[in-house]
Amino acid sequence: MPPFATEPLLTTDVPSPSSTTTIHPTYKYTCPYSKHKEGRNLVVCIDGSSNRFGLKNTNVVELYSQLVKSEAQLTYYNSGVGTHARPTWRSLTYVHYWLSNKVDLLIAWNLERVILAAYRWISENYQDGDRIYLFGFSRGAYQARAIAGMIHRVGLILPGNNEQIPFAFELYSKIDEKASKRKKSRRKHAWANELAETFKSTFCRSHVHIHFIGVWDTVSSVGVVRGKTLPSTTNGDHHMCYFRHALALDERRVKFLPEYIHGANTEGSHSERIKEVWFAGSHSDVGGGNRLNEKLQSGDIPLLWMRKEAVEAGLRVKPTEVVWKMDDLQKRTFESLRRTWWLLEFAPVKRVVYGTQDNHTFGYVLLHRGAPRVILPGQKIHASVLFKGNYRAKAKFWKDFDVWPELMYWNDPVSQDRLSKLGQVWEKDIFDASTVPSLLRDIQLHGVECFDAVDRLAFMASFGECFISLLQFVF
């Protein structure tokens, strides 16, 4: 029996755990790439710009603290762009680190270094059948998606070839996905693809896929100059099993425009495998880091949602005191567009142009002037925003394809009835009474190991319609 077979895990499996079984994910959708249920989890977590472990920890750090660390699940964490450990004394070395930190925040010259370090860790630890999980926030989210794109395009380097990793990234970054649509560039595009494929077959494992990507508010923008979008970061989901993206409804800074899974394409399709869900707040409200969180118990809704989604896809997490609570719905959000950030709002900053079938269309379209973000068809909004008193989201629906309903009140029967009638654009996970049977089933099968299901039921029991459903199934 493997040493991790009896590890208490948080999952939503159908089979009851025994001395010979290991708990595995049970989404309705079955990932075609996850054929080896005995495989391990390799979990990579990359933090956002200037974010690291400290007093104001992000969701990345908090999620990492909850991960089971064992032979069944190997973990890796990298602090964000622009973070360095401060020397013990102030000397020329200190000045060097200080300048390096500031420049890194401005132009992110270590963006590639972080990608290659995480890629190398995966390549050194990967075994056939392992499941790769990638988590990130802000630029760290973009780096996580770039790792997935790199593995998809050039493969995962074989052990003993670490010196070839920089060349792998060079080949990957030279692939120009727009070139195939330009007559003059088609030959160059074909050449770059051929080289990448040849490199993959020579030095890499070519059939490695990403099991789960979980990111908070992906931002690729670096400094005042926008570079080329890295391949396979904003052009679909064919190289991953599950993609979860938490987005900030109230972020308005032009340099923090989000990178959607389908880029600028407003006709991209979403499915059970792909979820992009909007939450109340600005960039760091959704990804964490705006408030003190030294005990790693923030209870932020975007984190709890991501944890639930990842657990259902097989992530192993430890019991935690953080649960769904009514108070979390009323947390204050912060305005990020302040002071010097306004200067860029009146500068000709290159940004994405929505409404095309091209995933990578950019242009200098008017001045941004603090314009709201755009909610695209197929994306969802978390229903928790409807219970925030006096809250009005800043983001707008693309071409008004939907409208905002009225705010709801927790103990109002009319609000409860309206909640059940909300359309598909709303993510109702913690309010959805239809999930009661599956949650009770998980508790019956897995007992105390399914503590997340218990927490969710306790939260739902305080809500009228869910409480009635719970009583119906219990009695």
Short description:
Helices cover 31% and strands 12% of the residues. It is an alpha/beta fold and 475 residues long.
Task: Give the helix/strand layout.
Blueprint: E1 41-46, H1 59-66, E2 73-78, H2 92-107, H3 111-125, E3 131-137, H4 139-154, E4 156-157, H5 165-174, H6 186-203, E5 204-205, E6 210-216, E7 240-248, E8 274-279, H7 283-287, H8 301-312, H9 341-345, E9 351-352, E10 362-363, E11 374-375, E12 380-382, E13 396-397, H10 413-420, E14 426-427, H11 436-446, H12 451-460, H13 464-474
Parallel strand pairs: 1-2, 1-3, 3-6, 6-7, 7-8, 8-12, 11-13, 12-14
Antiparallel strand pairs: 4-5, 9-10
Helix pairs in contact: 3-4, 4-5, 5-6, 11-12
Organism: Suillus subaureus
Pfam families: T6SS_Tle1-like_cat
Domain T6SS Phospholipase effector Tle1-like catalytic: 40-308
